[in-house]
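pinned: reference chain
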Amino acid sequence: MTHTGLRATDTAPDAGGYAAARLRLLGGAAPAGPALRTALARLTDEWLGALLGRAHGVALVAVGGYGRGELSPRSDLDLLLLHHPTADPGHVAAVADRVWYPVWDMGLALDHAVRTPAGARATAGDDLKVHLGLLDARHLAGDPALTTALRTTAYADWRAQAPRRLPELRELCEERARRQGELRFLLEPDLKEARGGLRDATALRAVAASWLADAPRQGLDEARILLLDTRDALHRTTGRATDRLTLQEQDQVAAALGLPDADTLLRRVYRAAATVSHSGDATWREVGRVLRSRSGRPRLRRVLGGRGGRGGFVEPERVPLAEGVVEQDGEAVLARTARPDRDPVLPLRAAAAAARAGLPLATHTVRRLRGAGPLPEPWPAEAREQFVTLLGAGEPTVAAWEALEAEGLVSRLLPEWERVRHRPQRNAVHRWTVDRHLVETCVRAAALARRVARPDLLLVAALLHDIGKGHDQGDHSVTGAAVARDVTLRIGFGDGDASVVATLVRHHLLLVETATRRDLDDPATVRAVTDAVADAETLELLHALTEADALATGPAAWSAWRASLVADLVRRAAAVLAGEPAAERAVPPPPTPAQERLAARTLASGGLAVELSAGADGAELLLAVPDQPGVLPAAAGVLALHRLAVRTADLRAVDGSVLLLRWRVAAEYGELPEAARLRNDLVRALDGSLDVAGRLAEREAAYAGTGTGAGRRRGTVPPPSVTVAEGGSRSATVLEVRAEDGPGLLHRIGRALEGAGVWVRSAYVSTLGGSVVDAFYVTGVGGEPLGESAAGEVAGAVERALVG
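pinned: its structure tokens
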């Protein structure tokens, strides 16, 4: 039969009525949730069905998310107009226009296609994303037989092509994860595209539709609904079709969902994403096993049964890993004789064995492990040893730990863990949530275990060093030390060991903060370490923990320069702990031979001398300048104009007429500038012909206008703070400046200190992400530390200069 007489109603339904009903629905008090999405989908179904009218030989089909009936406020309408292959093209085009144009006139996003069932099938065969959309095809209006035929062929083809299509789908998911990152660790996650997001949940539905494998279902539907609810609230809050949950919108979205704050929202989102990711990992492992079994010969062994050994069957080979734990088909599983209900150590033993073997824990195994009874307190020796073995397995620790965590076993073993689980860290330096950072620190510490005498204490301290972040009040290091001591005793360590772990947690930031913000030649700097750490063995552990913590934080937290400063500080502190007297620093310290040569050149010529030498971890810049006002801000401004990041600065006078400045600098990008250019610009800055402040102000305005960096964050960061560090030095007053980084910051600080009439002896600059913590050793004009009142006045002057 040839369908050439397509008929449709003569007038399109009133779009205004649909628009008003849609507005009432979305503008009402109904919260985001499945009911709202279903109501919106039904309302849209009715309108689109009316648009199609009584047309014959065609079917209007919803696909993708709309096909699932999950229509978010700003979602695209994914529509397919199917038509009989013998239908008149002109009439098909007319019907298509009758549907598409009212949708466009409404301002709704539309993803549309017009195809025959055979054409849709062919397109799906060439395009995986099209095929995925067809798996959710839902009839809206027209000839239902066309939709039924399409769904039947789409599912039959999907199941027949699963061995080819599922690896393709997996690669698509992995590529998206590489591009978008892991949703559960992102401060501004993409709810749809990031790993563990809505697209991954849809992919798991497609795997299940193949009948080849299925995802662990526990919690998966709830996780997907939570992500959808969050996206709906985001759409309604912003009025835009966005899937990225940005910082400035998180509080509003949290309020729309009835949550107290943005952190609560993120923890819920992260937990949902972790469920999706965990289900995906287990599902793709199962897909891999099934496909391997079809393409090759798995390791099998024959189990004899019946009289004379006949009537046996085959099963995958089982290789022992530990008591009650075996390897089977690439996973760690429980042996048949294992009894979790009688063996409370079994969860730790199984996780440790899996991590040491580099194998995933099978999902059904972890669920069986939930039946294990509680461990006695303190833990028996085997439990403690298996726990340390798990922490020290390196990279495989992450998967084993997360498998236990997915089934709630970690929080049963360590109730304190629940406070940090999925807890966001609102700091751009950190790559991970608090819990993931702690596990990553164990991974990094395991690689340093050979450097210390007690690797078990290092690993436990690595796991617990930020446990205090689960408490909202007070210094997390102080709170965490008390928690860590209790946990260490409970898991079976003695009182002395627990005291060491508590000390490590309390002072886990001491070395890096002291080394990068204080003068290592000042005895007070070394004394700050030796007062906190009582013996060489604890210092050794603290050194390793410092490095592991920084490496686990992110690339901005550790460098060869930071490592060298920390190692130098540890060496000096170890010498004092070994009984060597702390050398009293000469004030001012004597110049180096290179500085003496440079000063002599300046004295002889009366001009300005510059030397720049590159090294593996940056460059050293030496300046010799005739003593005059404004040297520090001028030099800092010139370095900023040449995009040189300052790490440390040391200033001293020679013969009362030459100022020597020693800078450790690094190029923000590109190569180091020529020393001659720096010299020329510094001469111009000092004689006033180069407007450093004006040039830096222009750059800061452009920086803010890009919407990145300090300009983008200006409304969300705390104001700058300038404080006096009590006891920081005997020979100088130490001012600590905390502020948001930006072009010319050191120049503004230098101008403020110059205006306050103090002498800057040295400066130590520390930048982490977008924030800086700079320490300035200042004295009066006679070289003496400032009095309490004068120090407070100088600090206030610098703070006012930064706020302004």
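why pinned: The first strand starts at residue 58 and ends at 62. The radius of gyration is 33 Å.
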